[in-house]
Amino acid sequence: MHLIGLFQEPSEVGGLVDALKNSGIERRDMIISANDEEKFAKMEAATESRITNTMSDQEDLGEIGTFAQGVKAFEGKNGIVVSVKSPKHKAQEIKSVMEQSGAVEIIVE
Fold first, then answer.
1. Cα gap 87→53, rounded to integer Å
2. CA neighbor of 82 nearest in space, from 20, 24, 22
3. For domain 2-108, which CATH number applies: 3.30.60, 3.30.70, 3.40.1000, 1.10.287?
4. CB within 8 Å of 68: residues ≥ 6 apart
5. Where do the structural domains in the chain lie, given as residue ranges?
């Protein structure tokens, strides 16, 4: 199961990553991406970890972009996108953590 949240501030993402780690979610189960390079740089500094900002499941590898650009539900919306892979039984907890961290929108897949 994947939960994908849209955040406006890099500091919200830093807090989210810490809260998710505290609840047992590993960093490797998160993808953090942004369309705005300035926000992405601030976000990277806030999370103090390696950030994944590429998307490789495009049909044409010549059109690789950011993960955020591939989330159709957030198309045209600015912000930072955080995707979390989790077991089904932790989905509600992760959604609550995202909401408390400042997510303006959350998609559950």
1. 23
2. 20
3. 3.30.70
4. 33, 34, 35, 53, 74, 79, 80, 81
5. 2-108
- Taking the C-alpha atoms of residue 15 and residue 49, their distance in angstroms, rounded to an integer, is 13
Q: What is the pLDDT of residues 24-67, one digit of tens each?
A: 999 899 998 886 666 666 656 655 544 444 444 444 444 445 78
Dist CA 68 CA 53 (whole Å) = 8
If pLDDT is split at 50, 70 and 90, which confidence band does 101 have?
very high
CA dist 51 → 25, 29, 67, 88, 96 (Å):
16, 12, 11, 24, 23
pTM summary value: 0.75
Q: Which of 52, 76, 73 lies closest to 64 in space, CA to CA?
A: 52
* Residue 16 tokens, joined: 């989210």
Q: Alpha-carbon distance 77 to 7, whole Å? A: 10
